[in-house]
């Protein structure tokens, strides 16, 4: 498509948001991604999963819930509206990333990736409703929500980086340890998803199919993953200290440790008190914080300075006051797709 017909390119010629605006737009997507997880938890914990029994409308005759549907219909419909707000926030992030001067293609791609994850998860959420809260689809719905959170955090982090090649700030064995930590944390969240799919909070007051595993056994597996992650976190802190890592990585690992401690306290208390709704919701919020903290640990072991046309990362990138980045000319062989 010619650049003159590309509305995003036209917008970029007329509006150059500041770096601060782009960073805040990216942070807003992180906040909304967390809200999506917490909102979905509220739907499940209040037995409102089928508050709107069909999709994309709330009933076959109405887009919105009726008075007769009560609080459950209102909760489920509100959760659907949160997705609409998320779409707006992601849209702003796309426009801001695309209009920033100089144009950073990688940042724009991360913004678009969020859009497609949101669309895919919205459709999956509809299928979840139409299948009567199939627990495997509900679990997949949760996994996609954390995938969105991952991309949102990556974009937020990238807004504060340059586009020069990545510089590793730790030896390869240390970086490999962080990837083991990341894998263990992913296993922790997946085990928690299975606990949810097998546990007492099915998402609807009527009988709903559950994952056919012993809830207490899978809870023990979840607990085992907790201690594996805690052990890896402590080990990583000592390894970073021994290898002379900077204050930044050590601070990120310490943050992860304390988030894990708080999350562990909530987890043990909720189990001992027979999983009350309020503590389960707090635990889901804590899961988001654990995942964010882990991602920040991984990202703290690298840096990407600002790049220049000459390729010298020590010099500042093109100043936004110079105007928008130049698009490749037609026929140059360089793609201009967003």
UniProtKB/TrEMBL annotation:
Per UniProt, what is one GO molecular function of this protein?
oxidoreductase activity
Q: Where are the transmembrane segments?
A: 21-43, 81-98, 110-130, 136-156, 177-198, 225-244, 256-273, 279-299
Q: In which pathway does it act?
A: Porphyrin-containing compound metabolism
Recorded topology in the membrane:
Multi-pass membrane protein
Entry superkingdom = Bacteria
- Pfam families per the record? COX15-CtaA (PF02628)
Indicate where this protein resides in the cell.
Answer: Membrane
Keywords for the protein's UniProt record, in alphabetical order: Cell membrane, Disulfide bond, Heme biosynthesis, Iron, Membrane, Metal-binding, Oxidoreductase, Transmembrane, Transmembrane helix
Disordered, as annotated region: 310-338
One Gene Ontology biological process: heme A biosynthetic process
Write out the GO cellular component annotations.
Answer: membrane
Q: What is this protein called?
A: COX15/CtaA family protein
- Source species: Streptantibioticus silvisoli
Q: What is the lineage of its organism?
A: Bacteria, Bacillati, Actinomycetota, Actinomycetes, Kitasatosporales
